[in-house]
Amino acid sequence: MKLLKTLSEMSGAPGREEHVRAFIQKEIKDHCDDINVDAMGNLICFKKGSSSNAKKVMIACHMDEIGFYVRSIDDDGFLRIHQLGGFDTRNLFARRVRIESNDGKFHIGNMNPAGKSVHLASAEDRKKIPMISDFAIDVGMTGEEAKKTFRPGDPITLVQDFIEMGDLATGKCMDNRVACWIGMRVLERVKTPKDDLYVVFTVQEEIGIRGATTSAFEIGPDIGIGIDVTLACDLPGSTKGDEITCLGGGAAIKIMDSSMVSDKKLVDEFVDIAEKNNIPFQFEILPFGGTDGAALQRVRSGARALTLSVPCRNVHTVTETIHKGDLEATVQLLEKFLA
Ligand SMILES: [Zn+2]
């Protein structure tokens, strides 16, 4: 959990994954035969397979998190923002954020919708859902200071401590640092894969599966496995049968989402592995959303592909919550598959 805490609390807005990448690269360098960073910033970790007719297996774990860029700086010193990824603005009231200025320094700010405080808001005002353009970040600076410190494009991420709650772990960007965690564990634990293994820590997933698209083209995998979180709607107010997945139910083997249908033979193979080894698993059908797995499937003339998901409550908020057992189950499935 120490590793997941470190990963979770790092900043990595889409296009600005360099801190996450540097950390992962340092940690796993002794567990790979070759490491490359491509033009877009994907971290490609290679392990030679033992089989004489080795196929190429690519596992994609995105490093980026939903975040913002500074759009402009007010004369009064407030930062206006542009969003990268799918936020529900109702979750963005009174949030603490971290902004990285272009000299590499981190600054803390408070994010709120500009306008009336609750004390002054009318009943009508309170019903309105603000747009991202309504939010402003207070960095405690005058206009002159803020304009000297920041410039458009400086990345902004939400701040939240990672904590454990019993069997659960919660914090920001479990989406998708849990996949980074899984990818790192796979590289450590799978000493000699049967097939050539490429674990790719990808960039810019949250804004259109961009890094997985280019890295998959470079590698040309025979088999592609995307790793991501999925919705666990096992919370008060949701109906039984509509949870998508539930926490503690094991690794989720994705049947489909709106971007891909997993390869049927791969689904069967993973189910078989899970049953033979008593690894807890559940099926996932997600009506909305897509992941890196879709890019792996559509690479060049196509690859066999599947996505494994870690069930997660409150996705795309700072209270993303996962079950430690589901993490472990996902790593075990991959270990057995790659062996
Ligand atoms: Zn994700």
Give the SSE layout:
Elements: H1 2-9, H2 18-28, E1 34-37, E2 43-47, E3 56-62, E4 67-73, E5 78-84, E6 95-100, E7 106-113, H3 123-127, E8 135-138, H4 143-149, E9 155-158, E10 163-165, E11 168-171, H5 174-189, E12 196-202, H6 210-219, E13 223-231, E14 251-256, H7 264-276, E15 281-285, H8 292-297, E16 304-312, E17 320-323, H9 324-338
Parallel strand pairs: 3-12, 3-13, 13-16, 14-15
Antiparallel strand pairs: 1-2, 2-12, 4-5, 4-9, 5-8, 6-7, 6-9, 7-8, 10-11, 11-17, 14-16
Helix pairs in contact: 1-5, 5-9
The protein binds zinc ion.
CATH hierarchy, class of the largest domain: Alpha Beta
Give the structural class.
alpha+beta
Order of helices and strands: HHEEEEEEEHEHEEEHEHEEHEHEEH
Strand content: 25-35%
Shape descriptor = globular
Low-confidence blocks of residues: none
Number of domains: 2
- The radius of gyration computed from the alpha-carbon positions, rounded to a whole number of angstroms, is 21 Å
Q: Please provide the count of β strands.
A: 17
Bound molecules: zinc ion
Largest sheet: 8 strands, mixed
Distance between the termini: 25 Å
Secondary structure tally, helices = 9
Instruction: Give the overall average pLDDT.
Output: 96
| Helix fraction by DSSP (H/I, runs of at least 4) | 25-40%
CATH structural fold name of the largest domain: Aminopeptidase
CATH architectural type of the largest domain: 3-Layer(aba) Sandwich
Strand order of the largest sheet: 1-2-12-3-13-16-14-15
**CATH homologous superfamily assignment of the largest domain:** Zn peptidases
